[in-house]
């Protein structure tokens, strides 16, 4: 069971503003989902390795070389706020 | 002559090359269909009318000069969660409402290099979160067979665009079932490739350990044609495998000795509709008559797949979607301090289901819960994957229903996230195991809604998956002909 307080806490960690109605709806629906996850407790996973990926590939590397960026103008055009070809961001330290 | 927009890649190619019609005529036929039907079906967020016609004119010149490539002049559509250079790509979320990617996803680049004409971008569940296409911030997509039914999701718009002949083929994504399920609900062919077969570079990531890119087509033959173009290793996606890609369209009609497994767990789901069961059993019998060996098999961990998926996916989602923060691209709600900027931008830019997934993922990955949820899910994932490894020592493919039911009513599951999650119960096991699976039309239920049949193969076993899908398709055409 997920409480409203827990929803508030994870919403803060996830940087999402929620209305009180949303908090209550998420507490209800996520509780139902988490309850369903209990089905996994039936499975004995002693000594079972976790699977994070299925390709079996590891350490795929490419040469560490620089390429000229040919789409600078287009990238700048996507930025919410630009000043003299630089991205404007709000102050990090208050 | 048949309406041009109803053609397949193969028949359109033949007609274009024989100069029976032009790419401008073909493209205009698709655009007309979109104009006529899209206001009701809502399958497209962006239609590239002017650009598509310009591309079609250029294609006609190439065809006249005798230099046509596989897709020269053929109109296709793309899920809006896949980047298309110079064409707005929203992922159906307002946070990317004004986003125009400056580059193409690798699969799109490959199709463009073969001459494909981009006709527009398809509505989907925002960031691929859903099984009904109701989680789009641009409205639900409707099923062309019955406007009161969902299209399926998350790549619903792409399935509808192909089923309703608004384009010749489309490209979507399948993380847990997002290609196969709408393909089944709309009556088209949809393939989830093996994880690592097609590049994911340029798709908006959802769950990186599961995301795949694949086509929607009108026939299995067309599926082989598109896979021949898009499959293969990509230096921009380190998860693509170096294995040689077979020529799928050349081996499609080969009648190899294929052993077909019927996994009992898929027929034991209480939700499985009787009509669907009957249709699949008929198809299995027809395959038996064609002297394919049919073997009863078991995948004992099947019932745990949905729980595994809905821990792994939201966890990876919450991490992937952290990049949607209003800083470098997309919408920014400039209000208050930095924290408020993030929180308000994400509040306005994400629909409820995206928020829910991020919250579940954040919770499952947070201190004290990681072992109980994420690690446990990954361990059970190993057991599900082992099930497939074992079964593919005995058989070459598996045949199952794609979905336990046909398209459901709009609104029926939208307030019940768990019910929506469970709609993908037959699609998720293949996804968490990284094996390829196709949905091919198998018939219709008494209400005229399409029924999909799923063929699952071993990793990199697309060849035999396509061969069996073709046999099922051929038997259906014979049947339709007799009726």
TrEMBL record, chain A:
Listed SUPFAM superfamilies: Glu-tRNAGln amidotransferase C subunit
E.C. numbers: 6.3.5.-
Key word Ligase present: yes
Record Pfam families: GatC
Keywords: ATP-binding, Ligase, Nucleotide-binding, Protein biosynthesis, Transferase
InterPro entries in the cross-refs: Asp/Glu-ADT_sf_sub_c, GatC
Reaction equations catalysed: L-aspartyl-tRNA(Asn) + L-glutamine + ATP + H2O = L-asparaginyl-tRNA(Asn) + L-glutamate + ADP + phosphate + 2 H(+); L-glutamyl-tRNA(Gln) + L-glutamine + ATP + H2O = L-glutaminyl-tRNA(Gln) + L-glutamate + ADP + phosphate + H(+)
GO biological process: glutaminyl-tRNAGln biosynthesis via transamidation; regulation of translational fidelity; translation
Entry keyword rRNA-binding: no
Gene Ontology molecular function: asparaginyl-tRNA synthase (glutamine-hydrolyzing) activity; ATP binding; glutaminyl-tRNA synthase (glutamine-hydrolyzing) activity; transferase activity
HAMAP family xrefs: GatC (MF_00122)
Record's function text: Allows the formation of correctly charged Asn-tRNA(Asn) or Gln-tRNA(Gln) through the transamidation of misacylated Asp-tRNA(Asn) or Glu-tRNA(Gln) in organisms which lack either or both of asparaginyl-tRNA or glutaminyl-tRNA synthetases. The reaction takes place in the presence of glutamine and ATP through an activated phospho-Asp-tRNA(Asn) or phospho-Glu-tRNA(Gln).
Annotated family: Belongs to the GatC family.
Assembly, per entry: Heterotrimer of A, B and C subunits.
The protein's name: Aspartyl/glutamyl-tRNA(Asn/Gln) amidotransferase subunit C
Species per Swiss-Prot/TrEMBL record: Candidatus Magasanikbacteria bacterium GW2011_GWC2_34_16
UniProtKB/TrEMBL annotation, chain B:
EC number(s) recorded for this UniProt protein: 6.3.5.7
Organism field: Candidatus Magasanikbacteria bacterium GW2011_GWC2_34_16
Catalytic residues, chain numbering: 79 (charge relay system), 154 (charge relay system), 178 (acyl-ester intermediate)
Residue intervals of the Amidase domain: 25-466
Official protein name in the record: Glutamyl-tRNA(Gln) amidotransferase subunit A
GO cellular component, one term: glutamyl-tRNA(Gln) amidotransferase complex
Highest taxon listed in the record's lineage: Bacteria
GO MF entry, a single one: ATP binding
Catalytic activity: L-glutamyl-tRNA(Gln) + L-glutamine + ATP + H2O = L-glutaminyl-tRNA(Gln) + L-glutamate + ADP + phosphate + H(+)
Function: Allows the formation of correctly charged Gln-tRNA(Gln) through the transamidation of misacylated Glu-tRNA(Gln) in organisms which lack glutaminyl-tRNA synthetase. The reaction takes place in the presence of glutamine and ATP through an activated gamma-phospho-Glu-tRNA(Gln).
Keyword Nucleotide-binding tagged: yes
Family recorded in the similarity comment: Belongs to the amidase family. GatA subfamily.
Gene (name only): gatA
Keyword list, A-Z: ATP-binding, Ligase, Nucleotide-binding, Protein biosynthesis, Transferase
Top enzyme class: ligase
Quaternary structure and interacting proteins, as annotated: Heterotrimer of A, B and C subunits.
Biological processes, Gene Ontology terms: translation
Pfam families listed in its UniProt record: Amidase
């Amino acid at each position: 069971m997920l409480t409203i307080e827990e929803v508030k806490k994870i919403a803060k960690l996830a940087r999402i503003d929620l209305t009180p109605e949303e908090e209550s709806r998420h507490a209800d629906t996520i509780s139902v989902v988490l309850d369903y996850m209990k089905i996994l407790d039936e499975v004995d996973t002693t000594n079972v390795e976790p699977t994070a990926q299925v390709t079996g590939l590891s350490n795929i590397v490419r040469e560490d070389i620089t390429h000229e960026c040919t789409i600078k103008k287009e990238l700048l055009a996507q930025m919410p706020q630009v000043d003299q070809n630089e991205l404007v961001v709000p102050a990090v330290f208050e | 002559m048949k309406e041009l927009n109803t053609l397949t890649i193969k028949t359109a190619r033949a007609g274009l090359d024989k100069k029976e019609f032009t790419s401008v005529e073909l493209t205009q036929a698709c655009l007309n269909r979109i104009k006529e039907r899209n206001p009701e079906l809502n399958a497209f967020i962006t239609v590239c009318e002017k650009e598509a016609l310009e591309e079609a004119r250029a294609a006609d010149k190439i065809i006249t000069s005798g230099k046509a490539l596989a897709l020269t002049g053929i109109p296709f559509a793309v899920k809006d969660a896949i980047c298309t250079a110079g064409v707005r790509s929203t992922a159906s979320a307002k946070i990317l409402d004004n986003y125009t990617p400056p580059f193409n996803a690798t699969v799109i680049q490959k199709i463009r290099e073969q001459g494909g004409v981009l006709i527009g971008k398809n509505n989907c569940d925002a960031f691929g979160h859903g099984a009904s296409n109701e989680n789009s911030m641009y409205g639900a997509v409707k099923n062309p067979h019955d406007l009161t039914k969902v299209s399926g999701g998350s790549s619903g718009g792409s399935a509808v665009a192909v089923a309703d002949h608004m384009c010749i083929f489309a490209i979507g994504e399948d993380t847990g079932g997002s290609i196969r399920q709408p393909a089944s609900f709309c009556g088209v062919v949809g393939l989830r490739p093996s994880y690592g077969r097609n590049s994911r570079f340029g798709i908006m990531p959802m769950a990186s350990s599961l995301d795949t890119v694949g086509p929607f087509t009108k026939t299995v033959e067309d599926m082989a044609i598109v896979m021949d173009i898009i499959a293969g290793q990509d230096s921009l996606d380190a998860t693509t495998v170096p294995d040689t890609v077979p020529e799928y369209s050349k081996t499609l009609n080969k009648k190899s000795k294929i052993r077909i497994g019927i996994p009992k767990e898929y027929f034991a789901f209480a939700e499985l509709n009787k009509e669907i069961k009957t249709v699949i059993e008929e198809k299995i019998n027809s395959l038996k008559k064609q002297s394919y060996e049919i073997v009863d098999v078991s995948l004992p961990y099947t019932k745990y797949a949905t729980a595994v998926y809905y821990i792994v996916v939201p966890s990876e989602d919450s991490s992937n979607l952290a990049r949607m923060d209003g800083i470098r691209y997309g919408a920014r709600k400039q209000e208050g301090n930095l924290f408020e900027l993030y929180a308000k931008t994400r509040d306005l830019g994400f629909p409820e289901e995206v928020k829910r997934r991020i919250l579940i993922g954040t919770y499952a990955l947070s201190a004290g819960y990681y072992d109980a949820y994420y690690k446990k899910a990954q361990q059970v994932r190993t057991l599900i994957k082992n099930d497939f490894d074992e079964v593919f020592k005995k058989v070459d493919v598996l045949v199952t229903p794609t979905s336990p039911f046909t398209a459901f009513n709009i609104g029926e599951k939208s307030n019940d996230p768990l019910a929506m999650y469970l709609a993908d119960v037959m699609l998720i096991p293949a996804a968490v195991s990284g094996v390829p699976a196709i949905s091919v039309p198998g018939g219709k239920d008494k209400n005229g809604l399409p029924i999909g049949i799923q063929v699952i193969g071993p990793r990199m076993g697309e060849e035999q998956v396509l061969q069996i899908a073709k046999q099922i398709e051929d038997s259906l055409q014979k049947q339709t002909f007799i009726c």
